[in-house]
Hints:
By secondary structure, chain A is an alpha/beta fold.
Amino acid sequence: MSNIILEAENLCKFWGGLKALNELNLKFEDKQLHSIVGPNGAGKSTLLNTLCGTYPATSGVILYEGRPITKLKGYEFCRKGIGRSFQKTNIFHNATCLENCCIAAQQRIGGSFNLFKRRNKNKEIIKIAKTALEQVGLSERTDTKAAVISYGEQRQLEIAMVLATKPKVLLLDEPMAGMGHEESQTIIQLLKELKKEYCIVLVEHDMDAVFELSDLMTVMVDGQHLITDTVENIRNNPIVQDAYLGNDDEVF
Amino acid sequence: MDSSFYLVQLLNAVQYGLLLFLIASGLTLVFGVMGILNLAHGSMYMIGAYLAYYFTFLTDNFFLAFLISGAIALIIGFIIERFLIIHLYKRDHLDQVLLTVGLIFVFNAIQSFVWGNDPLGVEVPSLLSGSIKLTDIIEYPVYRLFISGVCIVVAVGMYLIINRTKLGMMIRAGESDRNMVENLGVDISKLFTIVFAIGVLLSALAGIVSAPIVSLVPGMGEHVLISCFVVVVIGGLGSIKGAFVAALIVGLVDTFASVLLPEISSMSIYLLMALILLVKPQGLFKN
Amino acid sequence: MSVFSNKSEKLFIYIFFGIALFIPLFLNDNTFYINKIASIIILAIFVMSLDYLVGRTGLITLGHAMFYGLGGYIFTILAPEYEAVNFWLYTFYVMTASGFVALIVGLIVLRTNGIYMIMITLALAQMTFYYFADSVDYGGLDGLFIYVKPETSIFGLNFLDLDNETHFYYLCLLSLFNCFIFFKVIMNSSFGRIIDALKENPDRATALGYNIFQFRLIAYVIASSLASYAGYLFALQYGFVNPTMMSWDVSATALVMSLLGGLGTIYGAILGSFVYEGLHYTIEHLTEYWMFFMGSLIIALVLTLKNGLAGFLNSFSRGKSDE
């Protein structure tokens, strides 16, 4: 039964004359992993940035749970339940992993304007933070400073932070960027688990991972929507092959 | 008050505005290309003025003093960039603020040591000391026209350099994408030194040229710096065109406020700035 | 969990307040020196509020002295010249009024980015300077006086006589202590957690759903109100305010004191104020050109010891450095 949580209708993002996103129409369903692929410059990151409110859309509508959210301010998207992880690791380096997730969780639970309540006293926040760390497999690093953990672990922390905000949608921007094969496996297993609960929109260059994980794939070229289909169909689609081969990207 | 009075005020306003542009363009150029906010920019204005005083006194020739002071200012700019500013490129804004504040302290101490705290003045060079008849009734000091002239020449020169020369191309490129410029094989460190020295020269030039019409006192640098900030904020940091427009606006507001609304005249340009910010938080010409 | 972040801080606070408590006794009623130290303590409160803003919240302002001056002026303007008002009541008035001004200024200033904020705060402080310097009603460049100091009674119980230098000294010291504790408390709070987050990585904080403008505004209002409180104490000490309280070099000097003591450490404000004033006092006797020395020291510190004296001392202590 389809349950569309996030939708883009005629979504456009123009930078002056550059049409980074051009009349995109996409639907993302709950409990599904939907990948966005395409050659460099296709607009994948721009799409994520627009869907999570970092870039205001030039025109078009973004619908969340059926309601338009296009005009909301950047920080309001996350509050609605759209969580986003960054391609370039964007954590709080000087804080422990637990604290990183607590910062994320506190937004959900509230109390941020309380000047006098000690920050570590809120058991609920700590519980959510610890659960998030557990989900991504970082429990041993709970009290370690984020700056000293490995790159792969930092990427896991990125995802943990998003989970701690208790989102419904996960927009993941190249979570496996810069990872070797083994490290990627951890993330792949994690995403397999997560897609049972969340609507995941994944931008990734690691095509093996994309094929393994995706319920649906969308191919974008030059800011436009080329095709959305299952993994099998995309693989065999000559138009898609053309788009990629024409761009010197090693894919299939 | 008749129209001739207003004409004189208008000329004064334009002259003041052009002078502010001269100073502000240096500040905004350095920030736009190098990302450095040089708080000691006002000190350079002060140094220019005092050097002009010193060399006019020494050589009895203002124009010679003009040239010598300008040359020394360039050298000072070069030294400061090579030895101090160079360490700031990888640091944050706060370090820039602190280091350049330290420079202000040092320059103020030097000024006090060499020239003392009493107000000083420079005589308008005799060649330019007359007044020119604008209409039947009003005369306007030639020297003030000279100042405006110098500023216009510099503005045009800057326009030509930035838009027609290789250096200018590098400056424009550096303003939009520093990394890109480096990747294109441009020697960034040399570019930065040149740009910073130009910035210093612009400010010092304003000081040199102002020397015959202002009182040289301690603190003159900071006063000019703050007005310069108002111009740059209104015009948009990094935009030389913005600085030009904003400087003229500020010159007009300041001059006419002091004749029309004397009670709030000192505050007028800051009120203007606050009002503009309420509507356009990034200035008039966002870069 | 301790109030202190590390051993150096704990050590410094104990030593400082321990000594400070007994200063009037050591000085044997030498009122000149008691007043001098009280004035440095007042300065330390001002610097501490600036340190919270710059060092902890990451908002660089060169116009903080505006609130210092406003605190003094608001009191002097509101209080009748020849009547003793209630200290506590007027503390409330001063801090509320300046808090309100800070709200307005914050709304203008905090929507812009870092570099603009530096310039705009400086310009606004200058504007306030001119407002008072050019004013006829508020004493112009000469400033304003009050001739009778407030009385400090609560429900009829009179604690301190503000004309007594030693009493005034203890009031200042108590204020400094309260200020320190207050900042430590809010830093360790849920609010403080977000302030730390948005200082370190504002983009991430926004992406997590925080409206960082609101948090910064609150921090700005708090810090500015406390700066005004310091200005109020200044006015009380000598019964006099003038526009130079708001001049840019008061703001710049406070920033330097913060750097000397260690930006962001809060207790470093106390350390930095005393070190700066101590250096000033000693070197001024040796040479007229103490500015040259101080300027060079600042440059040297920025280039080498990024974390100021506190950071330098921290590296000797075995304690965990602050979060």
